[in-house]
Design brief:
The structure is a single chain. By secondary structure, this protein is an alpha/beta fold. Helices cover 34% and strands 19% of the residues. Helix 1 crosses helix 7. The longest helix is centred in the last third of the chain and has 19 residues. Bound molecules: flavin mononucleotide.
Length: 187
């Protein structure tokens, strides 16, 4: 008898310290609304004082097959609250190390927006490194936790793109999410 299968459950964890002033992330966030099997989690809205509820966050991670992160690129990294969330929740014995198998087999999908244009993220550009290189710490985090690294979705030049171009990015992002949850897993 074949094993029953279901769509993947995706947890979209978003961190933007000033979403009300955002041009790009606000559109990406809106585009993720109303998708079956997608749970949306706004870190700055949930934890304005940076007091992260570790057990509730662990439970959320365990209950989903795909962990998607969405954030604006700040100083070549994620915003501070998302780093705090990693530091407090992705613990030894839970995410990695002895007995730390709770995230193994899940997928990690990163979406971020940059102010710099595509051309800046190149060996000869002013940022000198590619996004693939800047995102290596997250790629390695996935590997350490036994997770599958999904090709990231990056929106460059977020501050200069037209509203129409940003809306098109948001719809492409929604299509990526739809494709990811459409992947079946054994139930
Ligand atoms: C504190 C801070 C740091 C930033 N660091 C970078 C950076 O390292 N690289 C980059 O390309 N853009 C950087 N930016 C620009 C943001 O990435 C950009 O404004 C954002 O992705 C646009 O998305 P939003 O409209 O949702 O805010 C930075 C912006 C701020 C406020």
């Amino acid at each position: 008898m074949s094993e029953a299968a279901r769509d993947s459950r995706l947890l979209l964890v978003m961190a933007h310290p000033a979403l009300e002033k955002s041009r790009a992330n606000t559109r990406l966030w809106a585009a993720s609304e109303g998708l079956a099997a997608v749970t949306r989690h706004d870190l700055y809205e949930t934890y304005p004082d940076f007091v992260v509820d570790v057990s509730s966050e662990k439970k959320k991670l365990v209950e989903h097959d795909i962990i998607a992160l969405q954030f604006p690129f700040y100083w070549y990294a994620m915003p501070a609250l998302m780093k705090e969330w990693f530091d407090l929740v992705w613990l030894h014995g839970f995410a990695y190390g002895k007995g730390g198998t709770k995230l193994a087999g899940k997928t990690l999908f990163v979406t971020c927006t940059t102010g710099g244009p595509t051309s800046a993220y190149h060996a000869l550009g002013y940022n000198r490194f590619t996004m693939e290189e800047f995102l290596r710490p997250l790629e390695q985090t996935a590997d350490l936790c036994g997770m599958v690294w999904e090709t990231p979705y990056v929106v460059h030049g977020a501050r200069i793109k037209s509203p129409e171009a940003l809306e098109a990015e948001a719809q492409r992002f929604r299509a990526r999410l739809t494709g990811l949850v459409g992947r079946t897993v054994a139930s």
